[in-house]
Each structure stands twice: as C-alpha cells, then as structure tokens.
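Attaching the record inline, Q. Sequence:
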Amino acid sequence: MTDIKRVVLAYSGGLDTSVILKWLQVTYNCEVVTFTADLGQGEELGPARAKAELMGVKPEHIYIDDLREEFVRDFVFPMMRANARYEGDYLLGTSIARPLISKRLIEIARETGADAVAHGATGKGNDQVRFELSAYALDPSIKVIAPWREWDLASRTALIAWAEAHQIPVPKDKRGESPFSTDANLLHTSSEGKVLEDPWEETPDYVYSRTVNPEDAPDQPEYITIDFEKGDGVALNGVEMSPAALLTALNELGRKHGIGRLDLVENRFVGMKSRGMYETPGGEIYARAHRGIESITLDRGAAHLKDELMPKYAELIYNGFWFAPEREMLQAAIDHSQQRVNGTVRLKLYKGSAQVVGRKSVDSLYSERHVTFEDDAGAYDQKDAAGFIKLNALRLRLLAQRDRR
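Structure, as predicted:
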C-alpha cells in the first residue's frame, strides 16, 4: 500500500468519513477523491462538497452523483422480480445499494487514475464484504483501504479526539453517544445499535423516521393500483412513472399508512447475529403488488421454482455477490419468467398493511370457467380426478402394504 498516490473514498460528509478522509491524507500521504451517491436518502448533499473542499479535496475531484433512477431500475427492480427477502423477511435495502456504490467507485477510480478505493464500513459488519467483493469483481487489480480494520480508533471518543486534533469540525449532536446508527436510501431506512442491541426490548417509537405509527394512521383505508409490464412497475393509479418516481410515490403512501416496519434479528455473513429495525414503506407495497400480479400470470411450475430459488438469490445479495456469475445465472432465469407478468394490481392500504384485493391481466392464466362451483359447460370433467388420485396414491398404497406385512 506504500505506493498509493490517489484514493477514491465513498464519502457521506459525516463525522466518520470526514475522519477517514483526513486519515487517508495523513497515513498514506495521498490525494483523495470523494464520491457521494444520491440514492434517495433524503439528506442535503451540498454540505458534503463544502466539507471535502475544506479538507483540501480539489473541486474537480469531488463527485456527487444522482443515482436514484439507476438504483431502482437496475438494482431494486431486478431484485423485486425475484420477490427476494433475506431469511424470509428483510427486503435487502442496504444490501442492494452496495454494488451500485462500488460500481461507481471503480468507474471514478478509472476516470481519475486512482490506485485504490476506500470505504467506511466497520470490520464487524456485512458492508465491508459487499463493497470489496463488488470492487474486486469489477477490477481485480484494485486496492481497497478499510480504515476501521487498520487504525487504532476503537471508540467514538477516540474518533472525536482525533478529529479535534486534526481540525475536523465535530457537530454538537455527535459529541454524545449516538442512541443508534442509521443507513438510508430510496428503498429503506435501517437502524442498528445501542437502544436496539437488546432483542427483548421493543423498538422505541423515536427510532422510526419514515413511517407513522400504524395506530396513528388514517382510520379510512386507501385503495391504489399498480400497473406492471414484464414484471416491473410502470404506473401508479394509471399514471405512468419512472422507477424512482414510482418508488418515491409509494414511499409516501407507505409513510402515511404506517406500512413496512420490520424488527428483525438476522444472521450476518461474518457470523454473528444482529438486531435491526427496517422501514421499507414503498418497497413493501411494491413487493406485495408484484406477487399479486404473478399469482395470475405465472404458471405453477415457474412460480414454485422461483420460490425455491429465492432464498439462494436473496442470500447472494445479502452476502455481497451481486456481480457473481451465480447471481447473474439466477437473474436470467427470473427475468425469463417475467415476460408475461403484465397487468394491474389493486391494493388496500390500512394501518400498517398492504393487502392485495384485486388483480387483472390480458395474460392471466386464471380461468373462472374452470374453477366455478356452478355449471362449467364441460370445461372440466370431474371424473378425470379419480385416475389422477389413484396414480398419485399408488406409491403410498404400496408403502402401506409393505409396512403391514
């Protein structure tokens, strides 16, 4: 690492990455390029530019990129086509953002002739793995600097002391112990640590930032429709929208009705269990709607195979293997299944729930004529079921006969 002359840093403008920026300059005596991604986290990104300039970063080496459309179109929507939920619950809001950030880090490294990239993920979490696996997949020769695995700043107090010693401004709200840490983007907000570390204790209401308490949500339900084409949402209530615009609108609806809260103890890739609180308001509505349209457009075999593949697919994203060939193979199969997933879903939003109450499609496989309890006009001969049952029962009868002997 001694020959590093320029580093691209994933930079939020917060205390931790500001300390990292200075630490890189001091430790490696190198030039730092900052990259701040606008993924819809809802924060003002202008101050990040000002802080970077204050710390000696050249204006032409400060990148602040609006990646919201790319994020939803090329990462969130493909994941949603798979109905991916890690360990059955988590909609992977943090996980799916990391490969895009890494992709842009590598692109900027090439544009600026940088020798290395750097991130602010700790040595205890999953993000270090996600950032670095993606970086190496895109550029096998890139060098990665992870300060939390190198420096001796083992506490928040030490971090603040180091910042003060190097004339890095420390906001007043950072001087006390933070009650929890958060990560946010257009898909979700996650909160971990401190007040959330005891899995027996209920999440305090002040932790939630993107949804009203379902108990305080409107007393009247709201009905909406989402239109799908080839497995992707294209319109809300009949109004065509871009991927990011659609998710933004669904987030507001989810916020209003208290939808998308999840209190989860999950298994990290690095081996430990962690407790987190996730808010995915628009994502939860969208995920329910997608399964709703699949229910009438996917063949049973394809639908059940997708459900069998989903846990592996979700695990690959969670563990940081977005750019791995096995994820791409699964994606090809999933995308093939979505060619006729077209139509409209109607949902009822009410006090924390998003319930599918209607679905229609020109590509529907649902046949009312076949399932009716009334006269089906010869669409289905019920006598056929006898042979079907006998053939499926044959092995069971043979087993029972053997066991009686």
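DSSP finds twelve helices and 14 strands in the chain. The chain has a mean pLDDT of 94.

More tomorrow.
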